[in-house]
Automatic annotation (TrEMBL):
Taxonomy of the source species: Archaea, Methanobacteriati, Methanobacteriota, Stenosarchaea group, Halobacteria
Domain SHSP: 41-154
Superkingdom to which the source organism belongs: Archaea
Organism: Natrarchaeobius halalkaliphilus
Segments forming a coiled coil: none
Protein name: Hsp20/alpha crystallin family protein
CDD domains recorded: ACD_sHsps-like
InterPro entries hit by this protein: A-crystallin/Hsp20_dom, CS_dom, HSP20-like_chaperone, Small_HSP
UniProt family annotation: Belongs to the small heat shock protein (HSP20) family.
Domain CS: 45-154
């Protein structure tokens, strides 16, 4: 007796192949997320965007800070962790009893970003500027001088 072909023949094999491909994709996504999160120590998704680039002799951090003045920003370097905080007070444009807002979306009051730098930097030469709502921080890498130091064994 001959066996009739079924539309479900090969379906189990197809599902196995699909499962293997999804597993491979998920592993690559995890690796990508782990590499990114290793540098970004901020808790949760912050409302401001940040770029960290390696320019050879220095790292450049660029942060979107629209509406923030330089006095609203606090930048700290602790070890290899760069912390950027922006805080501003919202000014009330209309007093009670005057016009009401039809739409009000500009609620951002403060932000916090913490980024671990891949290599040590020269703290004395770090500089920061704000221009047109963009904060740029230049962090020169610490040069290895190649000196060796003797360590006594006790």
């Amino acid at each position: 007796m001959s066996r009739r072909s079924s539309p479900f023949d090969g379906l189990a094999e197809l599902f196995d192949k699909l499962a293997r491909q999804l597993e491979t994709a998920a592993r690559s996504w995890e690796t990508e997320i782990d590499n990114r999160s290793r540098l970004d120590l901020s808790m949760g998704r912050e409302a401001t965007n940040l770029d960290l680039t390696d320019e050879g002799e220095e790292f450049i951090v660029t942060v979107d800070v629209p509406g923030y003045d330089r006095d609203d920003l606090d930048i700290r370097l602790t070890g290899e962790t760069l912390s950027i905080t922006g805080e501003r007070e919202r000014t009330e444009e209309h007093e009670a009893g005057e016009e009401m807002y039809i739409r009000r979306e500009r609620e951002l009051q403060s932000f916090n970003r913490h980024v671990r730098l891949p290599d040590p930097v020269d703290v004395d030469d770090v500089s920061a500027t704000v221009n047109n709502g963009i904060l740029t921080i230049k962090l020169p890498k610490l040069e290895f001088e190649g000196e060796s130091h003797s360590i006594n064994v006790e």
